[in-house]
């Protein structure tokens, strides 16, 4: 049965070399983003980093944000905030309602 729920995007099976080829980032840049706690690869039994398709999307976004002049600590805060939003659908609904109210009152 094929995966249709997107769960394949979170499987950490891609090596750093392949990630480098797909993103255009050097392996050194990718390791730097990990050291700045922007990306969290899993480690294989032999210690090799493994990434997911979602990680690749995040790395591209990180590189674009850095190119726009955003600091790594700000990117980390944004990514952390997104993770919290994904865990709490009620908060997301409140956020949307607040944005709608703000636009209507303008």
List the keywords.
106 residues; mainly alpha; Multidrug-efflux Transporter Regulator, Chain: A, Domain 2; three-stranded antiparallel sheet; 5 helices; transcription; Transcriptional regulator; DNA-bd_dom_put_sf; MerR-type_HTH_dom
Written overview of the protein:
InterPro entries: DNA-bd_dom_put_sf, MerR-type_HTH_dom, MerR_fam. Residues 13-81 form the HTH merR-type domain. Helix content is 61%, strand content 7%. It is mainly alpha-helical and 106 residues long. The chain has a single domain (8-105), classed as Multidrug-efflux Transporter Regulator, Chain: A, Domain 2, CATH 1.10.1660. A hairpin with a 5-residue loop joins strand 2 (42-43) and strand 3 (49-51). The longest helix is centred in the last third of the chain and has 17 residues, at 89-105. It is globular.
Instruction: Tell me the distance between the termini.
Output: 50 Å
Low-confidence sequence ranges: none
Q: From the coordinates shown, what is the CATH architecture?
A: Orthogonal Bundle
Give the rounded overall mean pLDDT: 85
Look at the helices and sheets and give the structural class: mainly alpha
Q: In order across it, which strands form the biggest sheet?
A: 1-3-2
Keywords: DNA-binding, Repressor, Transcription, Transcription regulation
GO molecular function: DNA binding; DNA-binding transcription factor activity
Domain HTH merR-type: 13-81
Organism: Ureibacillus acetophenoni
């Amino acid at each position: 049965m094929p995966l249709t729920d997107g769960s394949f995007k979170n499987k950490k099976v891609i090596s750093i070399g392949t990630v480098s080829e797909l993103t255009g980032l050097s392996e050194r840049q990718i390791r730097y983003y990990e050291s700045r706690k922007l990306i969290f690869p899993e480690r294989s039994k032999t210690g090799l980093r493994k990434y997911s398709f979602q990680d690749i999307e995040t790395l591209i976004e990180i590189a674009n944000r850095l190119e726009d002049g955003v600091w790594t600590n700000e990117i980390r805060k944004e990514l952390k905030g997104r993770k919290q939003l994904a865990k709490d659908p009620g908060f997301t609904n409140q956020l949307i309602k607040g944005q709608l109210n703000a636009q209507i009152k303008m």
